[in-house]
Amino acid sequence: MLDEVDKALLEALQEDARLSYNELARRVHVSPPTVAQRVRRLENMGAITGYRAVVDPTVVGRPVVALVRMKCYGPRCITVHPELLDDLPEVVEVVRLTGDICSVVKVVTTSITELERLLVRLASHGETSSAMVLSTPIPWRPILPS
User: Fold this and answer.
1) CB-based burial label for 49 (10 Å; 0-12, 13-18, 19+)
2) Average pLDDT of every residue of the chain
3) Partners of residue 65 on adjacent β-strands
4) CB neighbours of residue 19 within 10 Å
5) Nearest to 103 by CA among 79, 121, 87
6) Is 93 helix (H, G, I), strand (E, B) or coil?
7) How confident is the model at residue 62 (pLDDT cuts 50, 70, 90)?
8) Parallel, antiparallel, or unpaired for β 103-109 and 64-71?
9) 35 touches 28 (CB < 8 A)
10) Helical H segments across the chain, by residue range
């Protein structure tokens, strides 16, 4: 179970994963060694699964962002065999779903032409339906532990 210190650490690390143990200790009112021990425990229990930078696709030359709904079944299904997409760096996330579609694939490309090429490639795995992302009014935000 998570106590208030664990919850405060998770919240602070989601806001800025680069915070030092000293700064985390100051924010959550415990010692740096306690912070180090707690963070290691949160990592070991799977509450913290990684650390990464959030990158704006437009700034790095991939201004076309789309969500592709997929219906696929059998040996070519990307949710059963996600390794089928290993050679597609444009695919940045796949979410497996219930209902009439099996997944939503988030892609980032350099152009509409590249998006079209990618959609053709994804169609080899099943039926696709895509939607371009115009903006993100609610960007990623931290998950607050209950």
Assistant:
1) exposed
2) 96
3) 108
4) 16
5) 79
6) strand
7) very high
8) antiparallel
9) yes
10) 4-15, 21-28, 32-44, 112-123
